[in-house]
Amino acid sequence: MLLCVTASHKTAPFDMLERLSRTPDDVAPNLLRIASCVQGAVVLSTCNRFEAYVEVDEPVTAAGAVGVEAVLEAIEQSTGIPASELDGAYAVHSGRRVAEHLFAVASGLESVVPGEGEIAGQVRRALKTAHEEGTTSPELERLFQRASQAQRKVKNVTAIGRAGRSLVRLSLELADSRIADWAAERVLLVGTGAYAAVTLATLRERGATNISVYSPSGRAELFAKKHDIAAVSDADYARVATASNLLITCTNAAEEPVLGPQHLQAPVSAVSGGCPMGAGAGSQLVIDLGMPRNVDPAVANLAGLALLDLDTIRLHAPLEELQATDAARSVVREAADTFNVVGDQRSVTPAVVAFRSHMFALLEREIERARDRGDADGKVEEALRHLGGVLTHAPTARAHELAADGRGDEFVAALETVYGLSVVDAADATASETA
Questions:
Q1: C-alpha angle 413/419/425, rounded to 5°?
Q2: What are the catalytic residues?
Q3: What percent of the chain lies above the pLDDT cut of 90?
Q4: Structural domains in the chain (count)
Q5: What is the structure's pLDDT at 164?
Q6: How far apart are CA 289 and CA 269, in angstroms?
Q7: Where residue 174 sits, what CATH number does that domain have?
Q8: Are 117 and 166 in contact (CB under 8 A)?
Q9: Which range of residues forms the domain containing residue 402?
């Protein structure tokens, strides 16, 4: 049984997501250690969501509840966040709903900005990490591989990638209302990771040329040389920050804020800066794309400064372009249906093998009796084998039809009722056949 426990911008406040985004790498190993019925776990942790995908041994009583409890306990052990604090901040998907949810996540349909592309790589990395840690299961690997395939199809056959915009692009579009000439802006970029590279490219697309970079981890010189911009040292950080019109932070190098009032060398005002997109905004704009937050919220109280953070970006995210989104969701649903049908067919395979093995065992006994009675020309054997094929064909086909409808358990129950073949018998039959 597949299970997903998800906390995202749709269910949890950003401060909770900040705490979950610091999740150590031992959540998945802890999950397998806590509950023996957990057969595999993959954890997807990004700035806007935390999700644990779990495969639970379905014969376990209340498997879903056991799986959720194990996830919450693993989070508490790894992060110190009590399960009680997570109440109301997460949702649970199980069974057939899991594939559609993950496929939608991987395709950017559940992101703050629909269609953003960063999540696809994060989904791939989550599987890679779980594979390296040895916490995956065959069904979870199949799930995540099919999620990447679904994402690529959504990207190739729909316009969702153009309809949705990345957080970086959206934040700069929001900044457009207060920037008359991007070429005249003095921009300070804080961070040197992948997000910083995307931000720099997007700034240049808009015409910004006076760009400097500061790195809390000391990588500014290397990043600046690679991208032909100016590097800012620790000693000059506050001076350059104060002199910059636009400051964009996007680093995960530190858990504490890397930009605060002390770096901006300006007196604190008791009056809040208000809406950063409003008229009469000050001469400095700070865009915080970090998770956890890179900027101390107190900077919003500095005179002449406006702060645009992920909360505000979320509020200003554009309405979905329905046609593109609907097309993308259709692709996702179709891919999820295919995934579930294949899974259901696989789940009924042991029962089909058990049924056919049982029937052909009876057949072989009857053939042996016919030989003992003098079936010299093999006509009786030929007739019996033909009859065996006829008798097994319809039930086998029906089993696959039921599986495709998500009703494979009905075939298993019929085997138990009519032939006394249990699910355990079916699994044993499959093992012996493939040995």
A1: 75
A2: 47
A3: 40
A4: 3
A5: 52
A6: 24
A7: 3.40.50.720
A8: yes
A9: 345-434
Preceding omega of 59 cis (within 30 degrees of 0): no
- Of 318 and 376, the structure prediction assigns the larger pLDDT to 376
Record the tokens describing residue 345, joined without a space.
Answer: 């067919």
Task: Indicate if 407 and 293 belong to the same structural domain.
Answer: no
pLDDT of residue 317: 64
**Gap between the Cα atoms of 328 and 104, Å rounded:** 8
In tens, the pLDDT along 99-124 reads: 999 999 999 888 876 777 788 999 99
Mean pLDDT over the full length of the chain: 83
The answer to whether residues 363 and 404 belong to one domain is: yes
Alpha-carbon torsion (391, 394, 398, 400), positive or negative: positive
332 lies in a domain? no
Domain co-membership, 17 together with 81: yes
pLDDT tens-digit profile of 143-184? 999 999 999 999 888 877 665 556 788 888 888 888 989 999
pTM for the whole thing? 0.61
Q: Which two tokens stand for residue 85?
A: 């604090």
User: Hey, what amino acid is at 181?
Assistant: D
| Position 323 in a domain | no
Among the residue ranges 90-99, 261-270, 349-358, the one predicted with the least confidence is: 261-270
